[in-house]
Amino acid sequence: MLDGTTTEGIPYTPKGGRPTVIYHPAAGGHWIASWQIAASLGTPFVLVANDIYPHTPDDGLQGVVDADGNCPFQKVGYTDYHGSKLYHNVSLDVAHWLEMNQGDGGQKLASMPFVDILYVDWLDDWIPTPVAGLDVDFSDYAKAFAHKVRDGGLILLDLKHSDVDFELSWFDIPPDSFEVHSGVTLEHLGCIIQRKEEGFAHFNGAPNQHNIIEVFKVHNDHLSGEMNEGVLKRLDLLNWFATIDRVFCTQGAISEEVNA
Ligand SMILES: C[S@@+](CC[C@H](N)C(=O)[O-])C[C@H]1O[C@@H](n2cnc3c(N)ncnc32)[C@H](O)[C@@H]1O
Description:
Elements: E1 2-3, E2 20-24, H1 31-39, E3 45-51, E4 64-65, E5 73-81, E6 84-89, E7 96-102, H2 105-111, E8 115-120, H3 138-142, E9 149-158, E10 177-181, E11 184-194, E12 201-202, E13 211-220, H4 230-248, H5 253-259
Parallel strand pairs: 1-11, 2-3, 2-8, 3-7, 8-9
Antiparallel strand pairs: 4-12, 5-6, 6-7, 9-13, 10-11, 11-13
Helix pairs in contact: 4-5
Bound molecules: S-adenosylmethionine.
């Protein structure tokens, strides 16, 4: 059981041969927390950070700068990619992109193929919230998104908002393993502390911070009944990675491996 003292990254082994897909809905300016997780994986990744309002790395208020005052992220391409802006961090060696998506977080998740890691810190606004009650807890909120995480993937619950003075019942976590849907179970692995981000700071001077994150392993029998995403979603995944091959000049290697 992770006990909150681990700072060596998340307990996740990337699936070989393809980028890890990470989604952070309603991220606001806190996209930097999921960026940090993604950048420490050491393998290719696609990080999709969503918010209903624009938040980009080169934004004058919510953006980031390095020690020289430059934004370490470059915009990839001049046009939007399916309504998103794409960024690339020049000092990170592995193939990756940061997709800044503006729109409804729930609709974006519905349009995506299965994700490997879902990073959540705010469970209001972008999902239908459960009717309040004494027995409402994280498992009720997770009904809106857990089935979109692949079998063996992770849900990371950032506790950033857990100390607000009004009660947020999504921070009540059932013990051990719990079923969210038929065929979808979350195994609570415990929590980790994420180190401060390194190499850049928020443009607006907001302090860097440690993040405490509850970690859940997803057991997803996605071939059963309504959870089956079907062939179309798989094709979406292939197109996505074919685009990555083009953008990062990997000569088809990534999409070929996904296809294998
Ligand atoms: C309390 S803030 C949390 C921001 C950030 N995740 C953090 O922890 O600092 C809530 C965020 O939800 C965003 N939001 C509101 N409705 C949304 C929706 N339907 N889809 C996506 N984001 C939404 C807001 O713009 C805002 O950035």
